[in-house]
């Protein structure tokens, strides 16, 4: 026989030594179990005594057929939208069924379980929601769950929540591998959080490492639950509160304020340095570029003058008199171009040969732009 009557065990029908009809294998010295054929015969005799005697064989057959039909229809079952159906055949997992109307072989061949496998569950650790008549909903701290030791030997109060649900296609593992899924998730979450907090210093935990801690705890929880074969998927870990213990929270807040002031002063100094240093570098670069431009200009002008002088010298060697006179005329042209005097050659005449009414001195003077119209001019134009 595949089933053995071992101590503390049972058989396919659960714990103890009872079989499907309330009895089980007995010890050789005890009373023998009732015979199945004798049980059926007595049941038929009781049924005949209850039914009218005029039904005959056809009536009994119709009643038996009706019973069989009703027994067959008893295999229909409904799975709600947030549930998944699990069909067991003689207590062994066979298949999963989706929400809706489904069918399994009637009892006791197959049975169905409908756990809420599609619902997202939430577990709070370190806090408990309580109902307050005056305040409404409130939260009660659970220090034995929330107080944790950091890597630098400080105590921190951590309240967090875990969102989880049954893994797709792992409902059988969820039902049969773990006895208490919710308590298992809670224990694993608290253990994972303590491990992650124990590897971290208190300053990052209190400030900017929340996202890192949530991700690390979620990954560690999922790895542990997969090792258990729990069939549970951890969707999210949410840190609700991360504070120092209430006894020293004021001192920690003072330290945090001092750190904030220090960071603000450093940021302001860095901002000033980032503004002043580029400006100084820009001015230095401008001076260097101006000096280089002046050098290039001076060198170019000197080279041009040297080249011009050499060219004039070459022409001077070929015709000294002509070149000398040309140089004299060009020099006088440059000198007299900036003078405001007019020289008139009268020749042999005793008096000037030019009409004295021409304003010769005013011709060479630069013309000034006319002044804007004043109020008197505008008023005179309105007369």
Distance between the termini: 137 Å
Number of strands: 13
Mean pLDDT figure: 75
Annotated CATH homologous superfamily of the domain at 122-244: Band 7 domain
Instruction: Supply the CATH architecture of the domain at 122-244.
Output: 2-Layer Sandwich
Instruction: Give the class from helix and strand content and strand pairing.
Output: alpha+beta
By DSSP (H or I, 4+ residues per run), the number of helices equals 11
* Main sheet record: 4 strands, antiparallel
Gyration radius, rounded: 54 Å
CATH class of the domain at 122-244, named Alpha Beta
Any idea what the shape is?
elongated
Low-confidence stretches: 1-31, 374-383
- Proportion of β residues? 15-25%
Question: What is the H-and-E element order?
Answer: EEHHEEEEEEEEHEEHHHHEHHHH
In helices, the fraction of residues equals 40-55%
Q: What is the CATH topology classification name of the domain at 122-244? A: Tetrahydropterin Synthase, Chain A
What does this 3D model show about the protein?
The chain contains 11 helices and 13 strands. Among the domains are: 67 residues, no CATH class; 123 residues, Tetrahydropterin Synthase, Chain A. Helix content is 48%, strand content 19%. Helix 8 packs across helix 9. The protein starts with 9 loop residues before the first strand and ends with a helix. It is of the alpha+beta class and 383 residues long. 11% of the residues are buried. Strands 8, 11, 12 and 13 form a 4-stranded antiparallel beta sheet that branches. The chain has a 3-stranded antiparallel beta sheet with strand order 5-4-7, with no helix packed on it. A two-stranded antiparallel ribbon has the order 1-2.
